[in-house]
Amino acid sequence: MNLNTDDSRQLLTEEQAANVLQISPYTLLRLRVHGLKGRTGPAWVKMGKSIRYRRSDLDAWIASQVIQPAPPSPQIGRPRKTERVSTAA
Fold first, then answer.
1. In sequence order, which residues have a C-beta less than 8 Å from that of residue 10 and are 6 or more positions away?
2. What values do phi and psi take at 32, rounded to 5?
3. What is the pLDDT of residues 33-66, one digit of tens each?
4. Interatomic CA distance for residues 51 and 54, integer angstroms
5. Nearest 10 degrees: Cα torsion 35, 16, 56, 47
6. What is the pTM of this model?
7. SS3 for the chain, per residue?
8. Among 40, 46, 70, 74, which residue carries the largest CB count within 10 Å?
């Protein structure tokens, strides 16, 4: 099946969704059922006994997983001999 990435309403099987996310279907199952390290997986649709994922939900979940790096923390402790110490009073 050729997946058109422009159609955000398409329903994907677990294997197709895992392929889009570049994770194993088992990892996707674990995210849905139990979560991993405090994180849950993308939203899903249950149709009878089948589980389907909307492409738009996968894209939203990917966007929610972005972690911005923290700014560098100020140095703690005494300055090194090579560092200048400001004596502004």
1. 3, 4, 54, 55
2. -70, -45
3. 988 777 889 999 999 999 999 999 999 999 999 9
4. 10
5. -80
6. 0.67
7. CCCCCCCCCCEECHHHHHHHHCCCHHHHHHHHHCCECCECCCCCEEECCEEEEEHHHHHHHHHHCCCCCCCCCCCCCCCCCCCCCCCCC
8. 40
